[in-house]
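Entry 14. Ran structure prediction on the chain below.
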Amino acid sequence: MTSPAEPELHLDIPGGFHSLGLDLTPEAQVEQLWSIAKEIWPTGSDFQREVAFHSYREMADHALAENSFYAGFCLDEAPDGRLTTASLLARLDPLDEPDAELSARGLFEALSVNENNTVEHVRVPAGPGVLVLCGLQWQSEPGDETAPSLPLARADVYLPLTRMGRLLVLSLTTPSLPDLPFYVSLLSKSAHDLTVSSGAEPSPALDADGETRTTIADEVRADFG
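Output, structure tokens:
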């Protein structure tokens, strides 16, 4: 008897993001990272491209250490001429709770413990999930308060994929704070468009609560319904 095929995740990465090649062989990944460095710095010096290459390699190593199956970043020019950038990670964690609703509820409670998080229930066709928004301070020298630092905004989406027995985590980080709503709209599209090959039935979207809000958290929250 032929056993049924294992469910597979199909995730569309937003356009404009350069893959750091986590799915490639070491040799192919090196070629991929050098290609990105040349694309980002078409008129730059060899030194600039080499610095970029090593930065991308460090990003890829960090992503692998976090068990990510995808890592990418984008660097572009905003309509007003500013440079804008963001990084995106995707990973699959074990999922013990077979009920997606209970799993999402438990995640909501656990993630709400951190008072720095803005946590919201979301729903996409694949099922219920949780959106977390928070601010971070990147330190060039951890432990040295006088070292240069950079404010970052981070958005995480947690989606229990019970047919796979996995928790999908999408993490987007950007120092381009004014562009956070735009980047989270891209994250939302990936979350809404993902499919699992086992053919899970889409769940209805949540109704809006009718309240008018003006914060960035509310702007990006609206993308998830």
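Helices lie at 26-40, 46-65, 100-112, 180-193, 216-221. Will compare against last week's run tomorrow.
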